[in-house]
Each structure stands twice: as C-alpha cells, then as structure tokens.
Write a structure and sequence with these properties.
heterodimer, B: 178 residues, 9 helices, globular
C-alpha cells in the first residue's frame, strides 16, 4: 500500500481508525521504518501538547465549589419559605390571629366550622331552641377526644357549635368544639350573646347569613368586639346563659 | 425520574453531611464538579475566557447539569454533555463581551525568564497561537475525549478533528527542531 497520511497515522495511534483500515495501516507500519518514525513523531508532539496543556496552573476550586453547593441550598430554603409563606397567608386569611388565644379556643384544624343548607325564613321563624339538633353523648365524647380532653369536668364545658344551628351551622364534628366556661373571659356565654346578636341582624335583614357564618368561623372574638364596640366582654354577657352546659 | 446512584467519589462528603443531606442529586452534581471542574476550566481558558469568566461559566454549567438531571434527562456521557454546554456558554459569553484590549505583558521576572526557556513554556505559546478549532481539539483530546465526542462538542466533522490534531502536532514538532 501507499504510505498512510499523517492524520491516518495519528488516528491509528489514537485507536480511531475503523478496524479494517487500522489493520492495513499496521501491516504497512510493520514493513516501513520511515512511517513508524513519522507516527512516533506525531504521537510525541501531541503528548508534548497534552502535557503542556494539562500542566497549566489553575486557581483552586474551593471557592467555586462552595458557591455551587450554596446555590443549591438557598433554592431549597426559598422553596420552603415560599410554601410556608403561602400557608401562613392562607391561614391568616381563613383564620386571623386571635389576640386572646386560649387553650379552649376552637382549633382551626379540628373545628373549621360547617354549615347546612337552610331556608332563611324558616330558620328565622323557628324559635331559638326550636330545631336545635341534639348533640348526643357519643358525639360530645368524640369532640372531647379530638381535643385530647379525656376526663372532662362536668359543667365546665359547653360542647359548642362554632356556627350555631340557628345560624345554619351543621351537626358535624368539625363544627363542634369543647368550649370552656372558665378558661377565658371569651367563654361560651359571651359567644352565645354574639350569636343572638348576629341572628337578630340576619333575621332582621341587616346582615347576610353567609357573612355571619364566616365571622363566627374566622374569628368570633373579633366579631364580638366589632359588634359590641368593646375590647372586653360586657359584664351582662359574662353572666349570660343560653345553652345547657355539658353534664 | 431515574433513581440517582450516589457517586462513589462523593461518599466522604455524604458521610460528612450526615442526616442533614441525604444522598441526593446535589451530592452527585458536587461529585461531578470535583471530577470535571479543572478540565472544564482549562477548556474555557483555552477558548480565550478570563479566569473570572471561566468561573462564571462553570457555575452556569453545573447549575444546568443539576436541572438537566433533576428533569430526568439522559445521563449517558455526562462528560461530553458538560464540555458541550461549557463550549456553548463560553461562545455566548464571548459574544456578549467586548474584544479584550491587548496590553503589553509586564517584563518577565528572572524566575519567569528561566521558566520561559523551558519546553513547557514554548508549548504553551504554540498552543496559544493555534487556530481555535485546533487548540480545542488538542484540549479535548488531552482530557481523554474520543474524536467522535470532540466532533460533537465542537460541531465539526470527524475528519476535521483528525486534521486539526495533525496540524497541531506539526506545529508542536517544530519546537524540538533547532
């Protein structure tokens, strides 16, 4: 065969020639000292180039590595922050902060409130206690259990509706919570007074039923303060008794 | 997305990280950074980028790798992928940058003068003077890439790779000649 070209010699040396051609070039090299010398010179020259290239000094990678690792982590934190902020915003929207938070307050997760479909005229025509659904002992126990109260003191609580039935509240466990008479000034009696006020307004046409329900579910203490123009429960209301205590 | 095997090279880091950072994509990418940072840095320098620009490009490349792997995209020949992305990003950056102002080199120190006489110094000068494609072929071959991979990274034919290497070899051979 004719002498292989420089780049064929290079490719053979680098193992880049296809098999048949490579075999032919190798057979030629076996018999041609000058081609062997040429190939050796090419390979040496590229080896020199490779060494020169690989030996160039580089700045240490440490700072760059730290920066890269850090650029992963804040992202993850931002993501959590974003989710956290969204959740917090949503929680605030649905359940505004209570300034007078006490252990007996309804917990949003357990008692978000629930309503049933009601006919406004029928609801208002019914007497206060008219069609009030009965909270069975089993249902009451379930409410206590959910709140981790395993040995409720008799007459200390009212198993209360967050949205009362006479304002369209339902008889579901998520609309019920154990409201203490004594743990806070914002107790069951005070809330009963607010409920009466709201019902009067709804049935008198000055307040939308859905708004009244939302006010109770979102922040009944805030609603009380707004409707009675007071920062503290009125003395009359603290003594107000409407619903029966849990016995 | 495919399951990510923890990189053996990244094991010490995994142990260090403890329970805070489970074996993860981040660990894998950091392991690949340890393996390929210097090769990529040399390559971007050979493309005429400054050291700070090279650092920037390498950050971009590994963030792109992180996203690439997180999206479950192909992970065969990640080395080739890294060089290709580095090449593209370096060319883009060069387009954005104004051409460098050539300033005369400061007078060499006696030490530098001594080194300058060495073959290494002359090789570096020869490489710097090569056409870019030839220099890139030498660089990628030096990093252990096959001609086919080099062709793909640079967007040239297999034959062009061989010719570039042949030209580079011819230039370097002359150093040895008196």
């Amino acid at each position: 065969m004719a002498h292989p070209s420089d780049h064929e010699l290079l490719m053979e040396s680098d193992g880049e020639l296809e098999a048949v051609r490579a075999a032919a070039v190798r057979r030629h090299l076996d018999t041609c000292p000058s081609c062997r010398q040429r190939q050796s010179a090419l390979a040496n020259a590229l080896a020199t180039a490779t060494n020169g290239y690989l030996q160039q000094p580089l700045p240490p990678p440490d700072a760059s590595r730290i920066r890269l690792a850090a650029s992963f982590r804040p992202r993850r934190r931002e993501r959590f922050l974003a989710v956290g902020a969204l959740a917090a915003a949503l929680a605030l929207l649905l359940f505004p902060l209570r300034s007078d938070r006490d252990p007996a307050a309804p917990r949003a997760a357990l008692t978000p409130g629930a309503v049933r479909t009601v006919n406004l005229a029928a609801m208002c025509a019914a007497a206060d206690e008219g069609d009030r659904p009965v909270i069975t002992p089993a249902l009451a126990q379930e409410v206590f259990r959910r709140y981790g109260i395993y040995d409720p003191r008799p007459r200390a609580y009212e198993v209360d509706y967050l949205i009362p039935p006479d304002l369209g509240g339902s008889n579901e466990v998520k609309n019920l919570w154990p409201q203490s008479y004594s743990d806070s000034v914002w107790n069951a009696r005070v809330k009963d007074a607010l409920e009466d006020r709201l019902r009067t307004m709804v049935c008198g046409g000055s307040l939308d039923l859905a708004v009244a329900q939302q006010e109770l579910a979102a922040d009944w203490v805030g609603a009380y303060k707004r409707h009675f123009h007071t920062a503290q429960p009125l003395p009359d209301h603290l003594a107000f008794v409407k619903d029966q205590p849990w016995e | 997305m495919r399951f990510v095997q923890p990189d053996i090279a990244a094991l010490p880091e995994l142990l260090e990280a403890g329970t805070d950072a489970p074996p993860s994509l981040e660990t894998e990418v950091t392991g690949l950074f340890d393996q390929f940072r210097n090769p990529l840095f040399r390559f971007t320098l050979s493309l005429g980028l400054t050291e700070p620009d090279s650092e920037e490009i390498i950050q971009e490349v590994f963030l792109a790798l992180f996203q690439h792997l997180r999206a479950g995209k192909p992970r065969d020949n990640l080395r080739g992928w890294l060089f290709q992305v580095a090449h593209n990003q370096a060319l883009k950056l060069r387009q954005r940058r104004p051409p460098p102002v050539l300033t005369p080199s400061p007078a060499p120190t006696p030490e530098q003068q001594a080194i300058a006489n060495q073959t290494h110094r002359r090789v570096t000068a020869v490489l710097a003077a090569l056409p870019e494609q030839d220099r890139s072929c030498v660089a990628l071959r030096a990093e252990g890439l096959r001609y086919r991979e080099i062709a793909q990274i640079l967007g040239i034919s297999l034959g062009s790779v061989a010719l570039s290497l042949e030209r580079a070899a011819a230039r370097v051979s002359r150093i040895h000649q008196p």
